[in-house]
Automatic annotation (TrEMBL), chain B:
SUPFAM superfamilies found in the cross-reference section: ATPase domain of HSP90 chaperone/DNA topoisomerase II/histidine kinase (SSF55874), HAMP domain-like (SSF158472), Homodimeric domain of signal transducing histidine kinase (SSF47384)
Transmembrane parts of this sequence: 12-34, 163-182
Name by which UniProt lists this protein: histidine kinase
Native source organism of the sequence: Bombella saccharophila
HAMP domain segment(s): 183-236
Taxon lineage: Bacteria, Pseudomonadati, Pseudomonadota, Alphaproteobacteria, Acetobacterales
Histidine kinase domain sequence ranges: 244-471
Length: 251, 477
């Protein structure tokens, strides 16, 4: 049943449209610190295609120097770098008050590794091998900081979420959600119009770090969608083929 | 070790061979002894006969007859068993022979004659015939002296008896020594067997015990250990090669993925009226799916390599496995429902504590659940359960009512890329259970695969992980 729902939504606009929205604004300056030439080339090419302005450093000291002197909105940093390792570069930058979001890349998926990456000042952590869509989605998510207010109510288009009463309404219609569905929708409502990959959802909503069966997250989304988007409603939860899902709310 | 084992060792067989050689040697010695005795006795007999003859020849002819008649009372009886005087025509004159012995010739040499005694036994005697002067001058007579071989026979019997007496204790002692040696050898072999069993179970670090004796068994154990070192190294290299290949594959695959994405994006913007657009999109979708499977295989391979070589224990802590199971059931419940399966957790009172890494155990649970979902038909049931056994060992299990795993396939399913015959048509990397095996190994736990024998169940499998029991003392030590 989820299959048919997915098919219907696959026809939705390609996620790069969200970037196109951003093209009107100032372009995002991104610094990539990666020593593997072919991988760096691939990343640079892909991100430029998505509208980023990308500079690249290939060693630790070079990366540190460029990050310190240049104006960058985003930093993508490999952990293993010649000269000075990525985490030391990151720690130095944070000590010097640099606050731009940093995504750490690593070949190791060990959890302790991930934790040390985040402790050193990384905002997100991605393990190789990754698909470009995953990287793109995570960068986008980093640029759009999630909505964390003191408010106990999240309001987004037709959706209203009461965090204290644990109730959700769509244009006055009560939506009855299981706790796990509530958690999932809350996460998505805090990151509207952002592509969320399956791994991001599994890591952040469920706190799991394994490679899931491809349709595990899809089934959860499918169930949530059937409750949120009723017949005749404008679909809010959308599948982005090859990338993940998106809660699209008209501005 | 059984009794028959004791008699089947090389040491015992060697002892049996040695016993045979000893017995043969003793027999040979006996034969040599007999030769020595008979030669000695022959020389003694000849000497005695000649000396007696020379003494008797000195006697006057008349006295000689008297001496011979009285022989049984004189010292001659000691040396001679037969003595008689014959005339030229070989008619008896005096002595204890009533007739000329058949076959006896006149001559200076010693002669050997055998007789059949009245009791049919054969006796051998040596004879000497000498010419002595007769009563009338010019007439000579023949003096016949004989000595039997009874002395040799007696000595022979004594030698035989003593040899037999010596042989029995020697053989018994040798057999006993053989059994003792055999038992010792078996003890060492048993130790080696248990080491080999461990290695076969996958404990590649285990080695055969090497004694300080430097005997052939120790040297063999040393050689086997060196061989195992080499094997372990080769296995490591092979694993590294596998990891390197997986590592190297992902960059080109990531590029393919990126390009495919771009082609796809172009396709999306094409006019929908273009012929075959739908078929093109279908093909692209299939490519994406296969590529995704490639990535999942590579990721799983690298993950296994990481767990196997890394031996990472940093994330280990004492933890309760019950919430882990509850959460995982919550995650998998919708997908089970979609497949028409029921998934539930059997409640457990209190915590089930074990020493482990929560993330890794989640990975195990997810893989086992994936597996159960894959092989269970709609209408089936998947049960999660945790507990402690009578040895205070914590365990948890995933129980399904699926196709089941044949007994002979149960150990093979843990191997990399193994797919049971029944599951050929079901997609998957074939690595899920190897990943489980690697994580189980890291936790020093054991994985038991059983048939689901619940009453209302036709077939099905139970995967149960049993962990070492957690005691404060163990962890502090």
């Amino acid at each position: 049943m989820a299959e048919t729902t997915l098919k219907k939504n696959e026809r939705q606009p390609w996620p790069s449209e969200t970037h196109r929205e951003g093209e009107n604004q100032t372009p995002v300056n991104l610094l990539l610190v990666e020593d593997d030439d072919s991988l760096a080339e691939e990343i640079v090419e892909d991100l430029r295609g998505r509208g980023y302005v990308v500079k690249r450093a290939s060693t630790g000291p070079e990366g540190l120097e460029m990050a310190r002197t240049g104006e960058h909105d985003l930093l993508v940093m490999d952990r293993m770098l010649p000269g000075l390792d990525g985490l030391s570069v990151l720690e130095t930058l944070r000590e010097q008050g640099m606050t731009m979001p940093v995504l750490v890349l690593s070949a190791l998926s060990a959890v302790d590794d991930r934790i040390s990456g985040l402790k050193a000042g990384g905002d997100d952590y991605l393990t190789k091998p990754f698909v470009m869509e995953e990287l793109a989605a995570r960068l986008e998510a980093l640029l759009r900081r999630p909505i964390y207010g003191r408010t106990s109510m999240l309001k987004l288009g037709p959706l209203e979420m009461d965090l204290l009463e644990r109730r959700v309404r769509r244009e006055g219609r009560e939506i009855d959600l299981l706790p796990r569905e509530f958690r999932l929708l809350e996460y998505m409502m805090r990151r509207p119009n952002t592509v969320l990959t399956r791994t991001m959802l599994l890591e952040d909503v469920w706190n799991y770090r394994f490679v899931p069966r491809t349709n595990l997250v899809d089934v959860h989304i499918g169930k949530l969608r059937r409750k949120v988007d009723k017949e005749g409603d404008e679909p809010l939860i959308q599948s982005i083929r090859g990338a993940g899902f998106c809660l699209r709310v008209p501005e | 070790m059984s009794r028959s084992d004791l008699f089947r060792t090389a040491a015992f067989r060697l002892t049996l061979g040695l016993v045979g050689i000893i017995v043969l040697g003793m027999l040979l010695e006996l034969v040599l002894l007999y030769g020595q005795i008979s030669t000695y006795e022959k020389l003694r007999t000849d000497d005695l006969l000649r000396r007696s003859a020379s003494v008797l020849m000195q006697e006057a002819p008349g006295d000689l007859e008297v001496r011979l008649k009285e022989r049984s009372t004189s010292e001659l009886r000691v040396f001679l068993n037969a003595a008689a005087l014959f005339d030229k025509n070989r008619h008896p004159i005096a002595g204890d022979m009533k007739a000329w012995p058949a076959g006896l010739k006149f001559g200076p040499t010693m002669q050997k004659l055998s007789f059949v005694l009245p009791d049919h036994s054969v006796t051998v005697m040596r004879f000497l015939v000498v010419e002595v002067p007769g009563m009338q001058p010019g007439r000579t007579r023949l003096l016949v002296l004989g000595r039997s071989r009874h002395m040799i026979n007696e000595l022979w019997q004594v030698a035989q008896r003593s040899a037999l007496f010596a042989m029995v204790p020697v053989v018994l002692f040798a057999l006993l020594a053989g059994m003792v040696l055999s038992r010792r050898a078996l003890g060492r072999i048993t130790k080696m067997h248990s080491s080999i069993e461990q290695i076969m179970k996958g404990q590649m670090r285990e080695r055969l015990p090497v004694g300080r004796g430097h005997d052939e068994l120790d040297r063999l154990a040393g050689s086997v250990n060196r061989m195992l070192d080499r094997l372990e190294q080769l296995m490591g290299e092979m694993r590294d090669v596998g990891n390197d290949i997986a590592h190297d594959l992902r960059t080109p695959l990531a590029r393919v993925q990126a390009r495919l994405d771009r082609v796809n994006a172009v396709a999306q913007s094409l006019d929908p009226s273009i012929e075959d657009k739908e078929r093109f999109e279908r093909a692209m979708g299939l490519c994406q799916r296969d590529l995704e499977q490639c990535f999942s295989i590579i990721t799983a391979l690298l993950r296994i390599g990481e767990i196997e070589t890394g031996q990472r224990r940093a994330g280990f802590q004492q933890m309760d496995v019950v919430p882990l199971i509850m959460d995982m059931a919550d995650l998998y419940e919708p997908i089970a429902e979609m497949q028409g399966l029921s998934l539930f957790v059997v409640p457990h009172e209190g915590p089930v504590s074990l020493w482990g890494d929560a993330d890794l155990l989640n990975e195990v649970l997810a893989n086992l659940l994936d597996n159960a979902l894959k092989f269970t038909e709609a209408g089936g049931r998947i049960t999660l359960r945790a507990g402690c056994n009578e040895l205070q060992e914590p365990w948890f299990e995933v129980r399904d009512t699926g196709v089941g795993i044949a007994v002979e396939e149960r150990s093979a399913v843990m191997g990399r890329f193994y797919r049971a015959d029944k599951s050929r048509h079901i997609p998957g990397s074939g690595l899920g259970l190897s990943l489980v095996a690697a994580i189980v190994c890291l936790h020093e736990a054991r994985l038991v695969i059983e048939e689901n024998n619940e009453e209302d169940v036709v077939s099905g499998t139970v995967f149960r992980l049993i962990f070492p029991s957690v005691t404060e003392g163990d962890r502090l030590a």
